[in-house]
Design a protein that fits this description.
- The protein contains 10 helices and 12 strands.
- By secondary structure, it is α/β, with parallel strands linked by helices.
- The strands form 3 sheets. Strands 3-4-5-8-9-10-11-12 form an 8-stranded parallel sheet. A two-stranded antiparallel ribbon has the order 1-2. It has a two-stranded antiparallel sheet with strand order 6-7.
- Helix 1 packs across helix 2, helix 1 packs parallel to helix 9 and helix 7 runs antiparallel to helix 10.
- The protein is globular and about 50 Å long.
């Protein structure tokens, strides 16, 4: 397959696969003590995994200032080091957190906070510019978001960012940002279990990249059958938006049943289940850039290996739709 994609209207070239850096932020929590990370991590393994991904052709890394309360950005910046110019860096802003206690404390939609957050992210990442700066408040009032879009245009003019996007699953909200000259993407949920036809249509109409979070359905499409045992893992006490995990003890049996029905197609051409899930996303639209998470070199290698296998065929997409009753 074509292993590079253009990031929407920006002309910025990225690998067809990006890596999401939520998990490598380690443990952090909400103000009421619920886990927001993916459990404990080994920072040295995270650094090795990022560098291995680079060696395997991955050039797009997506993080957020709040992942690990700043820790993900610090680890990613250290891992990239002198290879910063070899990658396209995306991060997000909008949440307020305490680094010392690793606690999410609120949100701030003001343009002044956007500038403070950008300055802090640049420092943690050890860089002088962000390639894709993304609003991380998915349900923000569109009028307030329009002010932040205009603020992002100022950041572009100042050379602090190259382009911007909104991380939201609402096409109408994404459309507000899309009216900005240097908006070049929308980040939204997309996986074989949770299609997003309206978001993909918007990306096509507005010439945006479709950056896909949860491409492996929080691990279910990587073959995860057992709920997390780590109390610091968000899946052990899933919030309402996190589908597929029930009481944290096991994955939703209905989801597992549907995934089992798709397994033969997804694992065609000697793909792993995870590689098949990524192949479905690439087949879904030429604008898609899935960003699976990772915590180890082995996971980095498996995910990056999907690029060599390429997308599923149109016939396979049709068969999957039939199996899922779409």
């Amino acid at each position: 397959m074509e292993i590079t994609r253009t990031l929407g209207r920006s002309g910025i070239e990225v690998s067809a696969l990006g890596f999401g850096c939520w998990a490598i932020g380690g443990e952090w929590q909400s103000a009421d003590g619920n886990p927001l990370g993916w459990g404990k991590v080994d920072d040295e393994e995270s650094v090795r995994a990022v560098r291995r991904a680079l060696d395997l052709g991955v050039t797009f890394f997506d993080t957020a200032d709040t992942y690990g309360a700043g820790h993900s950005e610090r680890v990613l910046g250290r891992a990239l080091g002198k290879r910063r110019d070899d990658v396209v860096l995306a991060t997000k802003w909008g949440n307020v957190f305490d680094e010392e206690s690793r606690t999410l404390t609120g949100r701030d939609h003001t343009p002044a906070h956007a500038r403070r957050a950008l300055t802090a992210s640049l420092a943690r990442l050890g860089t002088d510019r962000i390639d894709l700066y993304q609003l991380h408040l998915s349900d923000l009032d569109p009028a307030l978001a329009a002010e932040l879009r205009d603020q992002c245009e100022e950041f572009v003019t100042e050379g602090l960012i190259r382009a911007y996007a909104w991380s939201t699953d609402d096409p109408a909200r994404a459309g507000v940002f899309a009216r900005g000259e240097h908006c070049t993407a929308v980040q939204h949920q997309l996986n074989v279990m949770q299609d997003a036809p309206e978001m993909l249509a918007l990306a096509g109409e507005s010439n945006l990249a479709s950056v896909n979070r949860s491409p492996l359905a929080m691990g279910l499409l990587a073959g995860k059958r057992q709920g997390p045992q780590d109390a610091g893992d968000i899946r052990s006490n899933p919030p309402a938006w996190l589908q597929g995990f029930g009481d944290g003890a096991t994955a939703d049996p209905e989801w597992l049943k549907r995934i089992d029905a798709l397994k033969e197609i997804l694992t065609s051409e000697d793909r792993t289940l995870a590689q098949g899930a990524l192949a479905w996303i690439w087949a879904r639209s030429p604008r898609t850039v899935p960003i699976p998470g990772f915590r180890s070199v082995a996971q980095a290698e498996q995910n990056a290996g999907a690029m060599a296998k390429g997308p599923l065929t149109a016939d396979q997409l049709t068969e999957i739709n039939k199996l899922l009753g779409r």
